[in-house]
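Homework help board

Subject: predicted structure for assignment chain

Our instructor gave us this sequence and asked us to write out the predicted structure in token form, then describe one feature. I got the tokens but I'm not sure how to describe them. Can anyone check?
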Amino acid sequence: MGFVPGLFLRYESLVEHKGENTYINIPKLKSHGQCKVTICIKNQHGLLYDKEKVYNHHLIDDKIVDILSVFRPDFCIVDATTVINFGPTLIDDQFKLPMGILFAGTDPVAVDTVGSKLVGIENVKHIEMAAERGLGTNNIEEINVLPSIDLIDRYKIQLEHDPNKIPLEPNENITIFKGAEQACKGGCGAFVVLGYGQRLREGLKMKPFALVIGKGHDTNELDTYQGQFIINGPCAIAELKSYFDERKKNEKMKVFYIEDHCNVAEVYKTYLKAAKLTMADIATEHLITPERWMELTKTCIQNGGNFISIL
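My token output:
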């Protein structure tokens, strides 16, 4: 069967008639800058269309547990042939690590518990919340790991989820201002990754800008930056809108406001606009062909989504 845009994302009937089908959830094992890990429970965030994902993204753990409470996989198979460090947005070979296993189960909470231990990440909020709500068990003593629980220590690889620890040189054209209260891990705080790992086609330059996230900012510090600003999230906007309105009276400057906590499509679209770039300018290595990229873009738009590449 060929590629049929009208059918590619129209899965509402499958969701509505889940009882008549077998639903197998197949996530990739990754660390995650907002949720610590992304495995079975987090993978179901993909059941939402993009335009729905942005709402209350700072409450991402609550959202994905709510999804699990109403739509539960029949079986989960986790791809850990390779695992991804500093997921989900950075694409770099150094963050792709071989683990060499697949693991599976019928309880997504138990499977996620094993997965988080395999990457050395504990106290994952959404796993604990799901267990507290009776959606599965996160007690490793109650989980029957076959052929042996010793396999966890045998295959364990320590991953990192904190985007502030990314071992890449920061982009000198992007200045990030985080308020004293910083920003929600599940919301604006995720966008510190914007400051790392962007590659431009040879000979291109980007226009510098500053990204402001969180609340509790020192305006004297903001005064030191002369240039354009992207103000992301309701907390930063509520605190700094009047400050930037005053600055614009005396300075010729551009200020972009993004109302949502974590609207990935809008952030990257504004990033490109401020930097005077296009998607084709960024990254010398694409994971898919331009033809396939355009095909997916068209399909996504037809189904009400905002398609962007995560760089």
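Reply (TA_rk): Your tokens look well-formed. For the description, you could write something like this. Residues 172 and 195 are 8 Å apart (CA to CA). That's the kind of observation they're looking for.
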